[in-house]
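<derive_structure_tokens>
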Amino acid sequence: MDNMYDVIIIGGGPAGLSAALYSARAKMTTLVIEKEKEGGQITNTQEVANYPGSIENATGNSLSNRMVEQCKEFGVKIQRDNVVEAKLDGDIKEIVGEQQTYKAKSVIIATGASPRLLNCPGEKDFTGRGVSYCATCDADFFTDLEILVIGGGDSAVEEAIHLTKFGRKVTIVHRRDELRAAKSIQDKAFNNPKINFIWDSAVEEIKGEGFVQSIKLKNLKTGEVTEYKADENDGTFGIFVFVGYLPETQLFKGVVNMDESNYIITDENMKTNIEGVFAAGDCRVKSLRQVVTAVGDGAIAATQAEKYIENKFN
């Protein structure tokens, strides 16, 4: 059958590539469909310091490139295509791309999630050069510097508290005059002497030469725009954006079960509510979204797909 595989993996980030490696090593015909560049969000990371074994100043690009080459060595096919429809009912799953249609005995959804952006001038220019969306990944780079946290929900305030272990001063910038985080989390922030607040303000622009040196903030009540500049002795500061994440799961809405934020619900074996369909990585409900957890998800999903195929088709 044309374009027929044992496993089709939708998404070529760490979860998808890990799933592909385990799938191919189990002698299953494996296809990864990726609409953009393999590697996912880590390709935007200058240094991957919290992945076990990354001790040679590994960048996100170098790590993902090694993953891709390893997959290809075991016979994984990587197809550049944009999936527009997933027909997951029945024994044979059908994945419809803009270029062609693919069929498989099992499917692993590894489409990831992306941080919600501020969409202000300078944000993309300074991503990885002062602007970050992951405190766990990048906090250490701002040790003893000033840090601004944009957002006021649970994640923003929790990460601000975490960042006080690194920065000498952390300032939460929020659009409203009160936080949206849970009261218990708010209390910890208000009682932390390192945390300051700028209320009723939104980011207008991020500026600098080579790295972040200032940020323009607009007071949403008065309309006044002020510029927050780096301390002269520091030359820079960190901006951590936590205004939400967007799981790349729109395609599967109404097809697989999701939570209220559109993350795919799985069990501990990465199984969705549909037989033969698994989800791995940032697109699924989980407590920690990191490269190390994504690759673990991918390995489990592929192993479970192998067991499913053996029981179903052999």
Observations:
- DSSP finds six helices and 17 strands in the chain.
- The helical segments are 14-25, 60-73, 135-138, 154-163, 183-190, 291-313.
- The mean pLDDT is 93.
